[in-house]
Structures are given as C-alpha cells and as structure tokens.
C-alpha cells in the first residue's frame, strides 16, 4: 500500500511536475511517462478514474488542461487517492488562488514544497491545509 | 513573491514553453546546460542565491526528461547552507535527483544528522523528509535512535513528529532491526493514543508497515486502532481542518482499517463488538450524495470497511449485506463505483459461502462486458472468470463467445484464452467443449493461440466417443466460404485422423473430403501445408480399396512439393510419396495418433502469466511474456515416457508462434514437427534442439526484447553502484546464512495450504514463494511462483525436492536467476503412489549479494489432496461398513486431548479435508459419519468411510473409526485425521492444542451409547 509517484501532465502530454517515491533511471521515467500519458489522456469523462498499468494502478483526475496522475500499488484504496488529488489541488488553490497550469509551471519549487508536506516516502503525511501551507507562508514572509 | 527572486529561472521556463518543437527545446536546453555548467565550474564566485537558481534549472531540465550529469554536488552542498531558503532547496532537489546509493549523499550525512538533532524545527523537518525519502542503510544505522527519540518525545511538536514517524518507516524498511528494541511495540501503541491527527496519520502508516510483516508483536495496537476509528466515526475531537467535506479524515479511517486487516482475528469480544458497530454504521450510513468529493471520500471509507468485513469473515448476515451493496454498486451510474464494485466482488469470491449470492448478479456482470470503459470491461471479465463453475459455465462461456466478436482487440486474446479454459474446466460434456473451441477459432482465429487448438486435438484424440462428432463439426466448418487458417489446420488434422468414421455420410467420402480440404491449400501459409500433406496421406491410407483417381491426384501433389523450398514440406512430400507406394506398410506407419498422456492444461498456466499484467499490452510485450513463460515449459525435463509428441507439444508453444506471426518458416517447421511428424522416428530433431538452446537463456534472463535493455540497466545500476550497501543492508558480515527472517509463520502457511489450493508458502524480505495446485485423482500439478521482491536479481536460485517414497514428484527446471521484480513459475507434477502421511520437502536456496538463504519448506502435497468427496447413501454405507470388518481394514481408536469444537465445526473441518459428511446417516446426533474416495497408483480409487463418536459431556475426547479396502490407507488416514483433530491448523490466534487430560482408563461412554446403531454393526 503506497504511492509510487505523482505526475502532473498537461493535455499536450508535457510533464509539469514529477515526483517519484521509488528510484527510476531517467530512461525508465521517460518510458513510463510516455506510456501513461498515451493511456490516460485519451480517456473520456464517462470512463472511470483508474487505469491498470504494468503491475500497479494509476489513479488520475483532470482539472482543466492539467492531469494529475498518481501511481499506486494494486492494493491501495483508489477513492482515497482520488480525493487526495483533490485535496492537493484545493491546497494549491488556497495558496495561489485559482490555481492554473502556469502557477505550477512557474512556481515549480512551491508545488514541490506543498507536495513534500503532504507525501513522504510514498505515504500521506498531512491532510490539513493550514498545516501544509504553514512552512511556505513562513518562507514567503521571510523573503 | 519569492519567485521574483529567481527571475532567471522564470525566463528560462517561459522560453522553453515558447519553443515550437522538440528540436528547439533541445537546443535551448543544451544552451542552458552549457551555461550552468560553466557557472558551476567557477564555484567560488557563486553566491548561495545563484547556486539555488541554477540547481532549480537543473531539476527543471531533468524533469523534462533530459539527462543531467552534473549539478548533484551543488545541490548537496546547499544542504549545509546556513539560511533556510537555500537549505530547503538543497534538501528538496537532492531528494529528487539522487537515489539512496549515490556517493554524494554520504557527504551530507553529518549535516543531516546535525539538523535532525539540532534545535531548529524547520531544519529538523527538512532533514527528516530527506532521510524519509531517500535514506539508505547507512542512515538507518546512524540516525534511527535520534529519529525514534523525536517521534516519542513529548516536548517535540507534531509537525516534527509526523515526519519522524515516516522517516522511521523508511529506516525500518532499510533495516528491520531499528525497531527490534525492547518496549518498542508498547511505544507504538502509545503513539496511537496521540491527539494530533497529522501525527496519527503518519503513525498509522508506520503501523501498517510493521504489522504487515509481523502482527504478533503488535496485538496491543489493535484496540487502539479501533479507538481511532470510533473517535473518527463519532466525530469526537476532530478539528475542522481534518474534516474533508464533512467526513472526519477519510485517509486516517482507511489507514486504520487497513492496519486491522493484518491481524488474523479479533478475539476480545468487546473490541470486536465496538468495531462491528463502527463497520455497521459505515455500511448502513453511506448514502450517495450529489457532491462528488464527498461521495468519493465516503465511499473510500466504505470500500475499506467492506474489505475489513470480508477479512474478519463476519457473520453471514453482514456478508450478504456487503454483497447486496456491491450488487448495487455494479449497476450504478458512476463509473468509478462500478469499477470498484466489480473489483471488490472479485475479492469477495475468496470468501467461502458467498459465491451463490454473487451468482445472482451474473446478468448484471455480463452486461458490464459492454461497458464503455475498458478498465471496467476487464474487471467484469475477471469476475466472470473467477465466479464460473459447473453450474453456470455454459451460460458464461456462451456470453463470452458472443462478446468476442465486438470486444476490443486489446482484450480478445485474453478473452479467448479465458473462454477456452472455462470450457475445458467446467464442460458439462465434451462435445460442448469441442463446439466452444471451434466457435472460438471461427470468431476470433487471430486471437486464438496455438495452445488452444492443440488442446482440443488432445481431447479428441483421447476420447474415442468424441471423434466422430469432432469430425462432423470440422467438416461443417469447411463448408463455410472463408475460414481462418487455424480452422483449416484443426479441421484438416481432425479429418485426416477421423474422417473414415464418417464415410457413409453424404459429402464425406474420401474424395469429397480431400477436395474440400484441397480447396483451401492455395490460401494457406507454409506452416499449414505440412498438416495438409499429412491429411492427404491419411486419407489415402483410409481409402481401401485404393481409388486410382484419388491416388493419382494426391501423388501429383506430393510430386509437386518434392522440390519445395521449405524443408519440412519437402521432406513430408518425399516421404509420403515413397510410403504411399508401399501399400500395406502405409497402414502401420500412418495409423491413428496414439493417445496423449493426461496432463494439466498449459492454457491455465498461460492465463496466469497474462494475469500478471492485465493492462493493455502491446503485441510485443505479450510475446515477450509468452517467451519467458514458454521457455520455462520448454526446459521442462520430463522424461519422454513414450510420448515424444507431448514434449514437443509444449515445445510448439513457441514465442514466435504467437497468432500474429505465421510467416516464419522455421517456426512452422517446429510446429509441424511437434504435432504431426508421424514419420519422424527421432523426436528431438536438430531444429528443436536449436530452439532449446535459443530459449534456454531467455528463461534465465527474463523478458527479452524491448524490456531487456531496461532490465539490464536496472540490474547493472544496482550491481555497480549499490551492491556494497545492499549487501550491508541484509546482514552483518560474517553472519551470512539464514538470518533473513521469514515473514509470517511458515508452519501456519503450510497448514493453511493443506486446506486450500493456492496461497503463499514462504515469504521473506526478498522473495515470495506462492503455490497454486490442482488435483485430479492421484495426480496433481503444483505451480511454484517465485517472486523476486527487489530491484536487484536473485541469483544461484536452487530448488530441490526431497520427496518421500510414496510421491513421484517432478520439478521443472528452476532458472538460476530471478530478474528484479519478476515472477517465475515452476510447475511440479505430483503422482501419488500409495497412501502415506509423509510430506515432501522443498529445499530452496538463493543468493542475494553475498548473502545465502536456504530454507526447507514442507510442500502441501498431503494425503487429503488425493481425496475426492463422495456422497454415500445409507443403503450403500451400511453394507460397505459391515463388509470391512475389523483390523487391519477397519481401525478404531479413542482420541484424547481433542480441541473442543462443536459437531458443526467438526463437520466443516472434515469438509475442508475433502470428506463428505452425511448428516442423519448415523441416528445418534452426537456422531458424525463421512465418506471420501482416495486415489493412488497402488490403490486406484478407493472408498474410505469414517465415523466419529463424540461425548457431549466431555468434548476433549472422541472415538474414531476409519475403514477402507487397504490396510495402509486405513492406518494413514486414521493417523492423519487424528493429527488434525488434536491441533487445528486454522487461524493462528487459536490456542495451542489442549494437552491430553487425565482420563479414566475405562473406555469412553460412547461405547455404551444406546443410540449407536452403527456400533452394533461393528
């Protein structure tokens, strides 16, 4: 039970954020991202949010032009991860205000900070938005 | 905003964004990399701020998929920067770019430790996160005590402690000893009393990891988990920040329920009651609401609750409630819920007794084969496959056949394979089976692998009654205007062998058969022509007296192919021509194919391989998979006991024979050699030999083709850069053997497998050995699944079977190396020679790094596997019972120290040994009578009867009488049953066997039992 990676990919298939919780070489990452993008981006609204890939599952959700794809072990609770994605988006939204692809793109470091406050070692570490954002706000104040 | 501080970075990002194509992007990236590299070279002139900016650029470029071979040092060096913004970047980028074995990481270990033990909370958090994400063995050794201290410290704030919990989880995975300290489990339990939900969420994750390996040390945590659930369910003391759309932290609820699923049972009645109250509330109280997020979150909790109920094997009432809910889900509108409904129903099939309730939803599930979503269609297919049995096979298989013509191409192969297996496994009669396979070939010939038609040929060859029917059917299909080449192959073969059985029917004279088959010749590929030539030769042989016209026609064809460029065709043409001129000799040489020895279906094995990756598969990948699996079969060293054809049959399942590729002449040759080389007296022809050599290494090296490259990379990566640590990670030097701790109790696993046919036999941190067995009469096939859990290969893998004299066991070749994260299957053929309770042992060893592991495992090929329950009526029972009078055929014994159980429980126990309990046969309600058939080579099928007389006043003793027609069988069976009654091999929570109690030496009361009519018969 655990999260293997979190990917944010736009609808053209460009990676906007990639965080892996198990080590993969660059070639492996490239191949994996390519396969996943091909498989998930073509799916329609009427289809479910889970795709089986290799020996794990991808739980994904689309927000406007951006896809959030989370690779999880087969025994993971899919809906919990699906809502975890939404929690991540809401958290970003609270920080950026109407978060969009560009926010994540140009504030890559912040997106990483937030994710790091939420997931560690493939496990969920915090789900309270104010706790997640506290260190970032602290830093914003300092600079 | 902080971003303004890194203007150069945003300029770079937007320039990349404006690139029109990949080429432009590459140029821009190359330019930037050159720039950054020069800046890093004169490191002295760089400020921390500049370093930070360039390090982000490096990460950004890396994320885009470009190789960046520098900048790692700079990222690591930022970790020791004094100011927070730089330090933070150092930590985050380092954990993205480096893996745990990177040498630079070692340089930072001191700084990291200082940050962890320092006073600055924010620094502590950063350091803990880095170690939690990429910390290796070295970190585990030097940091574990500090991390533990932080986790349990009362002065430390939650924001640090929650990270410490997950950091400890990482260190534990690197070195399980870090929590093997006295009193740790108590501390773990205390941690679960925590109020802060962030700390609780991480601590529960830690607990899940700990109990999944060893639940025994953590029983004290079980009531705590239930407490957490109660607190959340009642919404007590849950801050609004942790309430998600009105639901108290769904993630924590899910985690807590998951932790509970690792405990085999919950024995404390109070705890059990509280938990079931919570579960009941979740099951009953989850409504569908409009808000998607709320709905998802509440259903996340609901599905976890369902899983927990299934695990606890709750009262049947709750279980049927679960099935009802799932039934509602699969017909729901929301695709996610449909998917999960199907998935959980498939899981539920494992729970006994609910299959019947699930079957009520069969029609709904069949409809879902047409769902617009392939993920859902796959789940539906899986579920149908799992729920199929004799009662519904006809229905399900016919639905699958119908679905085949419209199914996705990506699914057709799997679908036809599954249909073929179900048809074979559950066929009500064999002619139906033949119908199904022929329809399958007709509808989806391209997706029907050769194994499928080989199998139907085997069946027809071995069942004389079936031959005329199969021939008629084959003849009918030939009338169709366009048929698949596979159909040409199978009908030509069947008609060659059996068309003489139809001779009197209209349209079935040798001449007519010949001409209709010959019509197809221009349309087929070279791999089919040899089959047709054999068929012609056989037709000729069956035409007595010879028909000169037909003879001339066929001879002309043979002559035409005498100079064919394809060696196989040429050889057959020449030989058949020469033989057919010899007249009577032909009869012997071309006689009907001999029967195939009974063997387990190769299809089932194949289906299992495919299941390992149910997602869409490219043809290449599919083929690669077949190659590994088939290669293993090919190396199967079964002696060719009179059946060279059989050995070759498995040979024929060559990778390249995959349905999409019929062109390669070589493979065609092999195939034809395999199936039809009647004239070839030496089975392993040179070409087969070559194939063996070719395939040999494949079995060892894992999936060939596209995946080989990456596998190799992975392997060499691990070997070159990490071996040192990896080795360390396993055991202290000098203590190299057998200190790997198995996961779970080996004896318990064995006992569980004695009662069921699939499950895990052994597991440790590196390997998992699963088994799956099928038993038919005195034979069995047990497949060992050797799964490598690591990212490095397991080498020097050896498996030896130490089998007792009564079992003939043949193990196919076990590959020496198991590639990273791969699973290898090794089939074992088991034959039971005579009754005995002795157990075969698997002596298994492997090497990981320099570390050797050797385990001896009992194999669940035990006496009760060769039993087949049989129901016996009173009319049959009593004469049998009487005729088996006294020792040695009938043995009686008073067993003491029996584990107290109700008669009902005892009946269930007997059922699980494959005895058929006949209630009411014995007039005394305290007694129990059961019957079964035992199979072995020496005894053949033999009826066994057993009678248990219990004493309601003293459940620790009983009298047992066992009877059968073979003295050895009677004795062994009696001893076996006795062993089982004295210690019950079910849930590990069960108490140890009750020690034998002092008993009055007089015979038990049962003897004087007036109701014991059977006793009178003794």
TrEMBL record, chain A:
The keyword Membrane applies. It holds the Pfam family Clat_adaptor_s. One of its GO terms (cellular component) is endomembrane system. SUPFAM superfamilies: SNARE-like. It comes from the Eukaryota. Keywords: Membrane, Protein transport, Transport. GO terms for biological process: intracellular protein transport. Residues 3-142 form the AP complex mu/sigma subunit domain. It is found in: Endomembrane system. InterPro entries: AP_complex_ssu, AP_mu_sigma_su, Longin-like_dom_sf. Belongs to the adaptor complexes small subunit family. This is AP complex subunit sigma. It comes from Nyssa sinensis. The lineage of its organism: Eukaryota, Viridiplantae, Streptophyta, Embryophyta, Tracheophyta.
Automatic annotation (TrEMBL), chain B:
The keyword rRNA-binding does not apply. Keywords: Coated pit, Endocytosis, Membrane, Protein transport, Transport. Residues 987-1010 are annotated as: Disordered. GO terms for molecular function: clathrin adaptor activity. It is a peripheral membrane protein. Residues 751-860 form the Clathrin adaptor alpha/beta/gamma-adaptin appendage Ig-like subdomain domain. This is AP-2 complex subunit alpha. It comes from Nyssa sinensis.
